[in-house]
Amino acid sequence: xSMNLKELSHKLGLSQTTVSRALNGYPEVSEATRQRVQxxxxxxxxxxxxxxxxxxxxxxxxxxxxxxxxxxxxMVNPIFADFIAGAGETYARNGxxxxxxxxxxxxxxxxxxxxxARRAVDGVIVHAPRMNDARIALLNDIGLPFVVHGRASGIxxxxxxxxxxxxxxxxxxxxxxxxxxxxxxxxxxxxEFMDFAHxxxxxxxxxxxxxxxxxxxxxxxxxxxxxxxxxTSARDMLADANPPTAFLVASIICxxxxxxxxxxxxxxxxxxxxxxxxxDVLSYLQNGGAVPIFTATRSSVREAGRLAAEMLLHxxxxxxxxxxxxxxxxxxxxxxxxxxxxxxxTP
Amino acid sequence: xSMNLKELSHKLGLSQTTVSRALNGYPEVSEATRQRVQxxxxxxxxxxxxxxxxxxxxxxxxxxxxxxxxxxxxMVNPIFADFIAGAGETYARNGxxxxxxxxxxxxxxxxxxxxxARRAVDGVIVHAPRMNDARIALLNDIGLPFVVHGRASGIxxxxxxxxxxxxxxxxxxxxxxxxxxxxxxxxxxxxEFMDFAHxxxxxxxxxxxxxxxxxxxxxxxxxxxxxxxxxTSARDMLADANPPTAFLVASIICxxxxxxxxxxxxxxxxxxxxxxxxxDVLSYLQNGGAVPIFTATRSSVREAGRLAAEMLLHxxxxxxxxxxxxxxxxxxxxxxxxxxxxxxxTP
DNA sequence: AATCACGTTCAAAGCGCTTTGGATAGTTTC
DNA sequence: GAAACTATCCAAAGCGCTTTGAACGTGATT
Lengths: 347, 347
Prior knowledge:
- In chain A, 41% of the residues lie in helices and 16% in strands.
- In chain A, strands 2-1-3-4-5-11 form a six-stranded parallel β-sheet, sandwiched between helices. In chain A, strands 7-6-8-9-10-12 form a six-stranded mixed β-sheet, with helices on both faces.
- Chain A is built from twelve helices and twelve strands.
- In chain A, strand 3 (123-126), helix 7 (134-142) and strand 4 form a beta-alpha-beta unit.
- Chain A is elongated and about 85 Å long.
- Chain A has helices at 5-12, 16-23, 31-43, 50-57, 80-93, 108-117, 134-142, 166-179, 195-210, 227-238, 252-264, 301-317, and strands spanning 62-69, 97-104, 123-126, 146-149, 161-164, 185-189, 220-222, 246-249, 274-279, 295-298, 325-328, 331-333.
- Chains A and B meet through helix 4, strand 1, helix 5, strand 2 and helix 6 of A and helix 4, strand 1, helix 5, strand 2 and helix 6 of B.
- Chain B binds a DNA duplex through helix 2 and helix 4.
């Protein structure tokens, strides 16, 4: 069907060895023949079979991404597409392929084991780590190189990860609100068995504590980060006898819900109630144009994908290097959703 | 490292032939040895190397998805994640892998050619077809099986596709608004070189024409479906001397922007201004809970992924079958965003 | 002139599987 | 009891590459 090494070398009157070497940049080939080979390869659109190459070299030249989904709510992580796009750029530049598996809940461990046993990939990126995430020990066990996007509290052994400094991001955001005079701040957080959500709450409560403000447990919600969740959380908190004057919100999607709740009770975001979100810079959900709609802690998930992929490829290339870590600091972008605390609060 | 056929057959005192046949369900193996083999395979977690198997059989057992992204705006199609999740379920059930490539703009053709030449996949799903999409002829040319998610107007040869009936969906939505008394309806559409957007506009204008309502070109916008685009489009149209009393909007993300614009001018969605969106049932952007926020034409993109993948696997299994097509009808879900046209409109 | 070194090329083995074309032993059939 | 099946198993070839070890000039060295 399509050209293979045998045919190509036949056509050139050379051995497969020489052609292979010419194309893979080995030195023991004269410059003249190398030119001739490369030219012929381009002309016939010859590309080595990924499978044959992989079999011969023992490397898959592929990286696995396992996307979790539960059959109940069928939720797919919204940052997934952008992260993948970023990682894909890195893979493309390095001649790697990206293979995706979807794992339903409990079957997750099996998916990783299968990936390893079938030698389908040279490594994996671990998405959405939970606290004490079991996958880290598992991957260490089965000897599959990996990089975690995020971190997993409670894991003893070192491992490679790339994370946003969620704690400092939410800490700074909280301080920013406190500086504006807000004292009653609602937290609309992700599910707190997710490591990032746990850390964000830590940053929030620590910053409050630093100013001697007590964190009110009734002003902290945690759940799956949908628009609806943002809406109901904010609506309920605003209905409190002593409602918050500001919200710290875990994602832009949630933030849209929070804004809806604020406007539903006739208040104005940025004036009556301040809102800070975390912005993953999702391509299809930009935080406004030149002027951000929401004041936000911002860190591009696509860039994270690029970097995490680079880390992983590096780990694969140098197998016994110690675990590497990258901690990205989020920027605090001031947009239209924050302002001084309303004065009637301090009569 | 991990168990292979040779070792396993050695351990069992059988030939590789017999073990392979036992595991792949061939009849020329006694039931007793089959049991023995299967048990041993499970025990040692033996799984055939995907590469070796592929090389031997000539099939990749993998399907390709090419995700387009432009370096300028880095936009990733928001429905991608859910579609992939659906398709992935089908692949997992059938022992296929999913490989993702990202293609930047112009390099797209090369990506498909490379996929084919390296025999990396047995087929591909074509995403986000444009009008007269060149990929269809290309894939036919290079002989790579494919299924299009959507359709491409202007292509002569038959090809397999799965699409939502965008025309009838937007036609019915328009009629619904007309029945409510709306006569001035704004269209916030996707980019119109995208086939789906083209069809939606057709459904819209035809339904208007059927009632003798002229379509006003100033009330039709088309652009990348972001929240911001929804906002600016609706804001501008509402600023018109003769503003629309209803909007037909191409996506929920756009819809959120439209709602923001409506509320920004002090109007109430569902009362002063009606809105109908198209809802792809994205897991992370649900259209409300039990009661839909937006009245919507609805069709699950995840389900589309499942079905498209099944079509493709079927096409691959029966190479010379004629092209198959599936046209899904969208449901019209009535939510809180629509109501009768305000009476001051017809004094 | 024999030796060595070097640059260039090749034949063949091997990666881990499937599949073809026997072999072997036990069963029927006539 | 010989011939013909049948059920079960196996050795070996082949998929398309990479890589090892060897061979072949050719010019430099002694």
